[in-house]
Amino acid sequence: MEVKLVVDYEAYENGQTMAKSIEELAAKPESAQITDLIIGDWGGAYESSPEDFIPVLVKLKDQFPKIRKLFIGDMEYDECEVSWINQTNLSPLLEAFPALESFHIKGSQDLSLEPLRHSHLQELVIICGGLPARVLQQIRNAELPELRKLELYLGVEDYGFDGNLNDILPFLDSNPFPKLTYLGLKDSEIQDEIAIAAANAPVIGQLEVLDLSQGTLSDKGAEALLASESIKGLKHLDLSYHYMSSEMMQRWKSSGLSVNVEDQQEADEEDDWRYPSLTE
After folding, report:
1. Where is the composition biased (Acidic residues) (predicted)?
2. pLDDT digits (tens, 9 = 90+) for 206-224
């Protein structure tokens, strides 16, 4: 059973809060049957953070015994731009729900995952316009023995990404998640650098899917991937939303590999500027 909680602008102006919405949901008999709990706009997400309601959800955790998926911040741009979504330290939720299998987060402003430990979590997805290097460090230091899918929107410097390739290399060269089969290092302004590093990285040997989509990938990064023997062992490679030439796209289509090269973009004609799909 999936439930999404939203406090729209009108309700927020009339005094409704996400904390109250959670309390009201917990009081209903069907709360015991909820498997997927999605938290959308909590009313003024651009000026307040989940720290106002997370303690309530943690306190009432026993009213939600079947939760397996949590999504904090599921809102569209007309509700709140992704770069405006305030977050906080979300690790208390992981401790409160030990049976959790999937954790999705949208927004990276003041996001923290410290400590990041969970015995059963299989999927971690962070959607944002810029992921801070300190959060990448927290993920690298995580204890997630059952993690199968890691999907990170890396974004751009203007909206929070303050790292470089060295902050990403540990996920490729010394991956800390032994059961990982899906790795998404996507929506990046340094997508070519990531692609070149990933082409023959040790982690490729354990993956089924490599997702380098939604970034600024050009022929430079694509060439390294296409030349890699390791990449041929993947079940699927996602390169959608890219800046590859039509000639390079045709080479991929003729490669015999399962690869998504849809959504070709064109660089700015004046300065060859390329933009990831999701930033602001």
Report:
1. 263-272
2. 999 999 999 999 999 999 9
